Amino acid sequence: MPETTYSLGPLWTEIRAELRRSRQARADRRALARELAAYTTDSDLNDLGAILARHSHEETAAIRQILAQRQADARLAAAGAGPGTRPE
User: Fold this and answer.
1) What would the pLDDT profile of 12-47 be if each residue is shown by its tens digit?
2) Which of 12, 44, 86, 87 fits 79 for a cystine, CB–CB 3.0-4.6 Å?
3) Tell me, what's the pLDDT at 44?
4) With b meaning 16 or more CB within 10 Å and e meaning fewer, what string describes 35-53?
5) What is the C-alpha separation between 74 and 52, in angstroms, rounded?
6) Cα separation values, 71 from 15, 23, 24, 52, Å
C-alpha cells in the first residue's frame, strides 16, 4: 500500500491569512467606532442618519451596528447597568 503524505503548508498559509484578515477587520471596526464617537449630539446623529439614508444597508451596516450598540449601551447606563451587562 503506498504511503500518502499531506502537506499542511497551504493549510497553514490560509489559516494565517484568515487570522490577518480577522485582526485587520477588528482594527478597522475599532477605528470606525472611534471616529463615530465624535457624533454625540442629537443634531450630529440626525445628520449622520441623513447621510446613511442615502446609501444602501450593505454599505452602512457596520456604521449602523456601531450606532445601535452605542444606543443600547446608553439605555443600559440610564437604567443603571454598565455596557455589556443586563439590568436585573
Assistant:
1) 999 999 999 999 999 999 999 999 999 989 899 999
2) 87
3) 93
4) ebeebeeeeeeeebeeebe
5) 21
6) 35, 25, 25, 16
Residue 2 confidence (pLDDT): 67
CB 66, CB 77: distance < 8 Å: no
- In the chain the first and final C-alpha atoms are separated, in Å, by 65
C-alpha to C-alpha distance for 41 and 79, rounded to whole angstroms: 20
d(CA 31, CA 62): 12
User: Where do we find the cell 441623513?
Assistant: 50
Nearest by Cα to 73 from 27, 36, 47? 36
Whether the model clears a pTM of 0.85, i.e. scores above it, the answer is no
Q: Which amino acid is at 37?
A: A
Please report where in the chains the cell 484578515 appears, as a residue: 21
Q: Assign 79 to helix, strand or coil.
A: coil
